[in-house]
Specification:
The protein is of the alpha+beta class. The chain contains 3 helices and 6 strands. The strands form 2 sheets. A 3-stranded antiparallel sheet has the order 1-2-3, with helices on one face. The protein is globular and about 45 Å long.
Length: 121
């Protein structure tokens, strides 16, 4: 089942905060050093309940660079392939939730893609 939700992010003196609101569950809010990591915390909270967040940053082949996290707050990420980064994407761009995965599956896939790209060099 797909339901509507609003994802918002903001920077505060203590770091980045991501909030997800939906009429189907209580609001979820998390803070971290960057918005991408705060999004991962929100996802980790919702995933055991069967929910997936339909944003580009939750797709298996998307991950921000360290510099993008440090200097850009993780608001943009890279679309990764076995050849390396294939382009920059907006972390919070809406997508069909059927195209996203869990945080654990995403980390595994990014590690695999990174390893493959390093073997090719």
């Amino acid at each position: 089942m797909t339901v509507g939700a609003t994802v918002a992010w903001r920077y505060e003196s203590s770091g980045w905060v991501v909030r997800l609101d939906s009429p189907h569950f209580d609001p979820i809010e998390a803070s971290a050093d960057d918005a991408f990591e705060a999004l991962c915390v929100v996802r980790d909270t919702l995933e055991p309940l069967g929910w997936r967040v339909g944003v580009v940053g939750a797709q298996a082949d998307v991950w921000p660079s360290g510099m993008g996290r440090d200097q850009g707050g993780g608001l943009t990420s890279y679309r990764m392939t076995t050849d390396g980064a294939a382009g920059i994407v907006d972390t919070f761009e809406p997508v069909d939730p059927a195209t996203v995965t869990t945080v654990a599956e995403q980390r595994t896939e990014i590690d695999r893609l990174y390893d493959e790209s390093q073997r090719g060099t």
